[in-house]
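ENTRY TYPE: protein
WANTED: fold as tokens:
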Amino acid sequence: MYQRLHLTEALPARFGRTKIRLLDVSATGALAESKKPLAIDSKAMLHFTWRGRDVAIQAEVVRTADHESGLHFVEECAVLWELISESAEELLRAQRANMEGNRESNVVGEQTLTSASAGLGASGYVVWTLTGDGWKKRRALLGDQPDDGFCVSAAEPADQVELLRQTWETGDEETRRMTRLLAELSAASVRIR
């Protein structure tokens, strides 16, 4: 659940010699944006700096669509795990402060939790919940699945979201479970090989 860096904006990086921007970084992979599509199955060192710490990890391109590519990490990186742990702790502190109404401690990086969530762009998530008044959506830092709907990547195409919503509305419990599994795949797409 918390095994990712909670980026509030795209992160400059290099995949081999190619300049890219990281939209999402998890413990097992990353979503990268580049001027030219990265070649499927290509492997290179991924280099980036986050909060003053350098990360270098071997990665492989496992999917490409337009100018976004899914990278799978083919090794572990202690520095990345430390950063993810620190990021998760920071997010939990900010959530706790948010629940307590403590705006001064409600901080992720240099932004409040609310501002950080708003600035996520394609790297964040959208939670869809079905209420008596219809579908409601909200942006989220985490890809957690709600009981009364589903959560997808903010980059998920509108037609795919609409298909998930229609399936959820007309489906029985098993259909809704399967719909949620498909939504989880969207939310975790950088980890899929």
Summary: The CA atoms of residues 50 and 118 lie 20 Å apart.
